[in-house]
Specification:
- There is one protein chain.
- By secondary structure, the chain is mainly β.
- It is 6% helix and 48% strand.
- It contains 1 helix and 12 strands, in the order ββββββββββββα.
- The strands form 3 sheets. Strands 1-9-6-11-4 form a 5-stranded antiparallel beta sheet, with no helix packed on it. The protein has a 5-stranded antiparallel beta sheet with strand order 8-7-10-5-12. A two-stranded antiparallel ribbon has the order 2-3.
- A hairpin with a 2-residue loop joins strand 7 (61-67) and strand 8.
- The longest helix has 8 residues, at 119-126.
Length: 128
């Protein structure tokens, strides 16, 4: 988890991020996930090359990660907290609140062929 600097005053709060400052990589791609229904999970994959930073800018969700630091689940429920997901980390997103908007910053362009979608293949590659 990375705490993002929140700047607050009587008007409210502001959180800003910059490549290679608050975000520990150059941002190449930005996308967001929203409108999740019926308790359906998202992600369910790993990437061999992409690092992502996940921020719940509204609502909440859970992220289950299994990577170099082990397996654990975190609640993403604050716009000033983020989850760094390095390469070779299995990611499953679940338990989205109806108002959840999950912002994702990535250090690579989208390449559908780079996703590892088989848990068995992921374990095989990780054990090398």
């Amino acid at each position: 988890m990375i705490r993002l600097a929140r700047h607050s005053d009587a008007r409210g709060h502001l959180v800003a991020v910059s490549s290679c400052a608050e975000v520990p990589f150059e941002i190449r791609r930005v996308f967001w996930i929203y409108g999740n229904v019926d308790d359906r999970m998202r992600a369910g994959h790993a990437s061999a090359t992409t690092t992502e930073l996940l921020v719940s800018v509204a609502g909440s969700c859970r992220a289950r990660v299994d990577g170099p630091a082990g397996a654990h689940t975190v609640e993403l429920d604050r716009p000033d907290a983020s989850l760094l997901v390095p390469p070779m980390t299995w990611l499953v997103l679940s338990d989205f609140s109806p108002d959840c908007v999950l912002l994702v910053l990535a250090d690579t362009d989208y390449d559908p062929g780079s996703a590892i979608v088989s848990p068995d293949r992921f374990r095989e590659l990780r054990s090398r």
